[in-house]
Amino acid sequence: MRPVVIVYRQLRYTSAQIQAVQRAEALRHMGVNATCIPIKDFEKRKITNSFIIFVKYLPTESHKKIEMMKLYRSRGNTIVWDVVDAGLSFIKKTRIRKLVDGCLFANSSYPDNISHYTAYCPWDTRLLGYESDNNEKFKIGYIGKRSKSSCLDLIDESSIINTKKEHLTKKDKLFMQTLNCHFSVVRRDPIIDTNTKISVAGALNSNIICLRTKTSEDLLGKDYPFLLESDSHDEVKSMIEYCRDSFNSSVWYMGLERTKSVKDRTNHVACAKDLISTLRNIEQNSCK
Q1: What kind and span of H or E run contains 216?
Q2: What ranges do the domains of the chain cover?
Q3: pTM score, two decimals?
Q4: By CB distance 3.0 to 4.6 Å, which of 17, 190, 195, 207 could disulfide with 255?
């Protein structure tokens, strides 16, 4: 397989950067020559005959950047954009079709105007060993940036943590081990919906309350018991109570089986295997 170069925009320690670094590590374990570099370093390199994967950020905001992208394609590279949750209006721009060979989405809802493939985001490998060990009492919490979720007033202030930082502390670990139900009420366009929060809940041996979307149905099943039909305050409050009342019941354990399957399906090894297969498909289709 040709070398893989994963490019991310280094603004701060973000999920996109974590994903880029850990995906490159997983690919190397699979025997792939994979590297991970920030965009500022990428622009200085003369990469040829490789797969170049841009994570979230695609450098097309100026004529100079667009010409750079065209240059890299002319050097025999296959250009892939891992969309993550980039702006929908940007995705639909016609010029994207001429600059990339394929786009990766974390669900099967795609825009019609670009070559598209499903590729789930792997959960953060730093969470290994942080699985919930709380089987005694229902404990709900939110992991992520406050601005990304609504209805956070319905859970305790002390049950909110941001793991988008370079090092997780012992306090972080102890906090995550007490949680057995995660919370994520993020309203996005279906095309850019991601699996990150669901995969994190699975990795930490927990259930999750989240919106019914194409992504959540694909991974958890349409009958997963803790899917919200809307992000209304009243419905979210009712779902939290239902989840609390279901703790340690057959419904609860059915939910845990589903999130466990997501953990297995989106670990770094499984996602690396899927990515290798997807890159080969993109390469084949781009040669037609």
Answers
A1: helix 214-220
A2: 4-122+268-286, 125-265
A3: 0.87
A4: 207
